[in-house]
Input
Amino acid sequence: MVLRDFTPLNFALLRSGSGYAQPTQTVAERVSLEDPAQQVMTDLRSVTAVIILSGDSLDEAHRRMIQRSVRLLLVVDQNRHVVGLITATDILGERPMQVITQRGIRREELLVRDLMTLQGALEVLEMNDVRAAKVGHIVATLKRAGRQHAVVVEHDHGGRQTVRGLFSATQIARQLGVAIPTSEIARTFSEIEAQLAR
Output
């Protein structure tokens, strides 16, 4: 095979305002409690995880959440290993004020590591269990745990654990067709139940 058998492609100039392709996950607009749980899971094989370093500022974490329209960031180290997570509740709740008061520092000095949930304290769901579960199982799980989010892991052939996906009470409620505020967990789940009972 010789190069003369191939015609070169033509170049064009990149236009102003051009974006770039990003992985997208198509989620079902509407689900019921009986639908497969995977229909409400953010699958990190299809959607890029939004990450942050533990040494980044709390303000940067908040900016990133707003920019990417998420309420949870995976905290990773330099090798991209998950070392924890931080949520909007961590950033916007009472904890920042408590740390500021305890340490006598300014808000601008707060780092992700000051408020994140460490990897060793993260309870996770197994992907094999999620595959067999329905949306109702996930709602019940989040309600019992009193959480807005759940992390899903899977294992490779060597037994190494990888974060595979995330569940968000807000996203699940949206897909169930229930409009809810994201501030109070107990209220969130009672509203989901009340609206679904109608």
In short: The mean pLDDT is 88. Residues 106 and 187 are 32 Å apart (CA to CA). Residues 29-197 form a domain with the CBS-domain fold (CATH 3.10.580.10).
